[in-house]
Amino acid sequence: MKQTGHEVRTGMKDRAILVSLVTDNMKKHEELVAYSLQELIQLAETAGVEVLETLTQNRERADTKWFIGKGKVEELKALIDEHEATTAIFDQELSGAQVRNLEEALDVKIIDRTQLILDIFAGRARTREGIVQVELAQLSYLLPRLSGHGKNLSRLGGGIGTRGPGESKLETDRRHIRGRIGELKAHLQEMVRHRTLHRERRRKTGVYQVALVGYTNSGKSTLLRQLTNADVYVQNELFATLDPTSRMLELPSGKEVVLTDTVGFIQNLPHDVVAAFRATLEEACEADFLLHVVDSSSPMREEQMRVVNEVLGDLGASGKPQAVLFNKIDLCTEQELQLLTTNLPHLRISAYEEKDQERVKLLIQETLMGDSRTFRIPADKGDIIALVYRVGDVAESGAEEDVLTFRVNINKDDYDKVQYLLSPYEVKEEKDKQDTQGE
């Protein structure tokens, strides 16, 4: 017997048939199509859905009315009745008209990939900023589709596709929703302003920022926790981390940097999500150094790396200094390890190995600290001495009467910013000598 709306409202699990359309253009990328469907299963399970069966349709192009074609809709209807499913989840984005037609024909809740991802985000958001971003993304997605969500909006109060903004907000008219979107954008702008002020404050104190970026479930949060002893949520599931988490990381030299975990990327990341989460993802844009964490055990490793680089490009962060961390090497075979190459600086690591954690810290230190320079500073110039410690990594120090000598590793960009203050005290001869020896 099919579940009633009352049964679902009282907390019973959504039971879904997953549907994927393979057009002629997609057939040349069969491996990606299969992976996308596998990922959809993971997304559904992450959202708390019981996946009953998958259905694939091959067509020259999407049907404008039924998406998968009238005949395949009838086949899907039979599957839904047979398994007593409550939901059909599509791997591609649907138009409002397609949702309406499918609802009327199938009499179940219709969800597409974008709505499913947004639903997971709604369940993951913890901070005020995360909650605002999710609501903005959901409303931006639903606004042009309101006419197609007639039954969805009145059908149920619980289950996937209804978290976040809530049923009452979604049933209001477009003008109210546009007004709400305006309010949320204003809130986000204020949050961005505060975040920018914090970043500027960190810059003035000479603190570097390092951002962990990568595909969802690549191990970024685990690495953050292992490196900084941070109390962060770690689970083997998609989008375990939604809100950015920043912690201080002490490098082997004793200098501290800010290490930030960011939301994981995914293929076909909805544009509404990228737009709404731009404030969070700006952490990657503003970082001094990006650590691209890769699940080296994934059979789709190369594709996942391509997706991350594509999103970084969309955000304007692709030109940032970057290193690749091939994580989870303990899950790889020897043959798989041989394939882990890139033209960027890279390390092969397991986030749980202490020696690998130290190698990551050294990589950060060597990348950010830069050239070695020597300064002789009068002991009474406390502000200049403090500046040296702030912008560089002091490797050696000594004293001769009233003059202090410092050998400092300092990043060229940072040195350029304070050169007018430090250049009078730099020992040029020694610097030139070191340069000659290095050639």
List strands and helices in order, with pairings:
Blueprint: H1 5-9, E1 15-23, H2 30-46, E2 50-59, H3 70-83, E3 87-90, H4 96-106, E4 109-112, H5 113-124, H6 128-142, H7 150-155, H8 167-170, H9 174-204, E5 208-214, H10 220-228, E6 245-250, E7 256-261, H11 271-276, H12 278-286, E8 289-295, H13 301-315, E9 322-327, H14 334-338, E10 346-348, H15 354-369, E11 371-378, H16 382-391, E12 393-400, E13 403-410, H17 412-422, H18 428-438
Parallel strand pairs: 1-2, 1-3, 3-4, 5-7, 5-8, 8-9, 9-10
Antiparallel strand pairs: 6-7, 11-13, 12-13
Helix pairs in contact: 2-5, 5-6, 6-9
General description of the model:
With 439 residues, the chain is α/β, with parallel strands linked by helices. It has 3 domains: 5-170, GTPase HflX, N-terminal domain (Rossmann fold, 3-Layer(aba) Sandwich), CATH 3.40.50.11060; 207-367, 3-Layer(aba) Sandwich (Rossmann fold); 370-438, Alpha-Beta Plaits (2-Layer Sandwich), CATH 3.30.70.240. Helices cover 47% and strands 20% of the residues. The protein has 18 helices and 13 strands. The chain has a 6-stranded mixed β-sheet, with helices on both faces. Helix 2 packs parallel to helix 5, helix 5 (113-124) runs antiparallel to helix 6 and helix 6 (128-142) runs antiparallel to helix 9.
Please state the structural category.
Answer: alpha/beta
Mean pLDDT: 81
The CATH architecture of the largest domain comes to 3-Layer(aba) Sandwich
Write down the domain tally. 3
CATH topology of the largest domain: Rossmann fold
Strand content: 15-25%
How many E strands? Answer: 13
The 3D shape can be described as elongated
Major beta sheet, specifics? 6 strands, mixed
Strand order of the largest sheet: 6-7-5-8-9-10
Helix-residue proportion: 40-55%
Q: What is the rounded distance between the termini?
A: 80 Å
Count up the helices.
Answer: 18
Q: Specify the CATH class of the largest domain.
A: Alpha Beta
**Could you give me the name of the CATH homologous superfamily of the largest domain?**
GTPase HflX, N-terminal domain
Rg is 26 Å
- Spans where pLDDT lies below 50 across 5 or more residues: 1-10, 153-157, 430-439
